[in-house]
Amino acid sequence: MTLSPPDSEAGSKVSEAAVSLKGFSFQYQAHPAVRDLSLEVQNGIIHGLIGPDGAGKTTVMRSICTLLDVAEGSVSVFGLEVNKHRTEIRSRLGYMPQRFSLYQDLTVEENLRFFARLFGIPEQEYARRRETLYSFSRLGPFQNRRAKALSGGMKQKLALSCALVHAPELLVLDEPTFGVDPVSRMEFWDILHDLKKQGSTILVSTAYMDEAEKCDHVTLLHKGRILLDGDPARILKNWTTNIYSLGSDAPRELARFLASQPEVLSSQFFGADLHITAKEEIGATKFRSWQAQCPSLRKWEKIPAGMEDIFLELMENDQDR
Amino acid sequence: MIRTVDLTKRFGSFTAVDKLNLEIGRGEIFGFLGANGAGKTTTIRILCGLTRPTSGRAEVAGLDLARRSEQVKRSIGYMSQRFALYEDLKLRENLVFYGGLYRLGPQTSLNKAKPYLERFAMERYTDELVREIPPGYKQRLALICALTHDPPVVFLDEPTSGVDPQARREFWSVISDLAASGKTVIVSTHYMEEAEYCHRVLIMRDGISAAQGSPAELKAAHGVGSMQELFLLLASGE
Ligand SMILES: Nc1ncnc2c1ncn2[C@@H]1O[C@H](COP(=O)(O)OP(=O)(O)OP(=O)(O)O)[C@@H](O)[C@H]1O
Ligand SMILES: [Mg+2]
Asked: B2-60+82-235: which CATH architecture?
């Protein structure tokens, strides 16, 4: 069992992908989950998987973790076929499924220690990691509470801590921040970046588009296919649609008004603001004429695309969702 | 619609909800915000009549919780933080089962659910076993199950956690329609943009009320530009 990622062979392995899917298809009963998918996860990066519910993210992750029988196409991890090298692959990766089970009758500390032993973490190393993990999870004061008495988000954070107690070569995390509060979510991403610095490769799925922006590479799956793939910073920079953020005291009324304006491709609520997308630039004259017809419009501003804008735009364009 | 007076819940020596005072009116969308473990779910479970407070009082839909918790249970809808669906039943059967709990006949349950199934584009899953459908769709189903009996008060505990960005907006459009039709909605969330869609919010910290008010009011009072900033300021307790 590998305790820490090998750094010595980095030179020879740097070009080889940690994960490679080629023409992979999979179906559950009648439903195709993934269709003819080809995807690579490069070594040493944080690779995000996003997509609408049911897009096939979990299927991709399960195939990588050797939990599915790959019949169509191929899936390999560390250059090894998942069908043939289950044991070796499993010993080198860490997987946190969407619904991870803790030992409900063990305390927080007992759960953590259990996983540390399972992964063969030396006592000293454990003491160090434990501190980092408690500071992220804020579960320190509740070390002696049984897992079953934790709140939903606290359970999720404990499960995450158990998954992060070792630093495997490849870490596969399926919606790790489900139900995690905003402060802990930020700290969790700091931990992921630390793990990456230590040499781990991380594949992570998320419903949070701000998290997708924190990845080095992101793949948007839709209906089992890839709709978008690349470095998020570059994707955002090269996005061509014009996006404006509009402020209004009656956003729903404004949205109704804008629906009848031919310039507006779509409008979406973003907290207190409304984001609209448009093919052409919209000038101040236009905005003022809208304001005359819909006085609740207070302000407008052209903004760079965010991953959530892009996600919504792509989904909007796909009619028969 | 809801009123609490010094509502308190202790587990042994630990106080999960500490003298909470709330007043929530008819047709309000009332948000519960707070860090993990702040006491949101505990408060919701008390108000749903699922657990008794250690001390303090609460009234829900005009009914005193201490004396009429059975009646309270029937006048509310509750979507719990973790799915309470029957994984081995079909989607359709879950709807019939939940409707039945509130004395709706099978056909009525399905008819009531139909517009929502359309709205969430999930009719294709009607005859699927729940365990076969993606988690985000289970969540849509759990929401529908909480609504088919037309309750005047609805408690939604993190309805949108783990749901995709487009579907989250559909959830909120349902919520705002419910409120517009006079229903009272209590909803917890960890998405700070969603806090903006609430008429008023409660920010809980270690069981106490750290702040209550409309998002605009609270942002102005604390001199911050967003609910995210407000959360960082008030909820983490540092
Ligand atoms: N049966 C119990 N015994 C002991 N402590 C409990 C029990 N149930 C809940 N608690 C504690 O009460 C506190 C509040 O939990 P609650 O579930 O209300 O939090 P929450 O605000 O809903 O958090 P989250 O955002 O994670 O869902 C937590 O510290 C939790 O561990
Ligand atoms: Mg909760």
From this structure: 3-Layer(aba) Sandwich (3.40)
